[in-house]
Amino acid sequence: MTDPATQAPTIGVLSLQGAFREHIQALERLGAVAVDVRRRRQLEGLDGLVIPGGESTTIGKLMVSYHMLDEVRRLGEEGLPIFGTCAGLVMLAQEVCEGDQPLLGLMDICARRNAFGRQVKSFETGLDIPAIGAEPLHGVFIRAPWIESAGSGVEVLASHEGHGVAARQGNLLVTAFHPELTDDLRLHELFLGMVRGPA
User: Fold this and answer.
1) For 30-64, what is each residue's pLDDT tens digit?
2) Domain-by-domain residue ranges, the chain?
3) Residue 135 class from Cβ within 10 Å (0-12 exposed, 13-18 middle, 19+ buried)?
């Protein structure tokens, strides 16, 4: 019989739109079983879920069309670990600071979309994230959001220019940047630690 504590976790990567392949590769490098999630039935039996970057409005509309939005919200409310990057941060937010779009509304944050500017203003920078170690993490920001405000239960893990760009709340982890586009796997390791729970 396989010991659940040592069994490789199965992580779904929402693959409707955006940078999902890179997340799958990162998770597989860390020994997880990573699977594409394109339909509601594929959410069954997962140990965790990643919502990748892309266009948050498009991802939200597709989740509604494929009847996945309410199911992911239910799973998140029941404690399924969920990691949202860039557009995934927006999707997990309780609200956006401008406009209107389908949201999961699971994390007590207000997200501002395209906060650092559009595609031509994309940038890379070192980020201090004590939760993953002393060495700065290379952050890749592409049409990135930021956390405009956060509730008292949200732990802001990293900031840039005075705005939160990584945060954790219970079973939820978000970044405004794209950790899957670098070789630094520490944030994916942090997420898998959340999936596995206390040692």
Assistant:
1) 999 999 999 999 999 999 999 999 999 999 999 99
2) 10-196
3) exposed
At residue 169's C-alpha, the angle toward residues 5 and 92, to 5°, is 105
Q: pLDDT tens across 129-173, in order?
A: 999 999 999 999 999 999 999 999 999 999 999 999 999 999 999
Q: Which of 22, 23, 160, 180 is catalytic?
A: 180
CATH for 10-196 is 3.40.50.880
* 180 is a catalytic site residue: yes
Per the annotation, the verdict on 97 as an active-site residue is no
**Which one of 86, 98, 124, 189 is the catalytic residue?**
86
Please tell me which residue in 22, 23, 160, 178 is annotated as part of the active site: 178
Please confirm, yes or no, whether 160 is among the known catalytic residues. Answer: no
- pTM beyond 0.85: yes
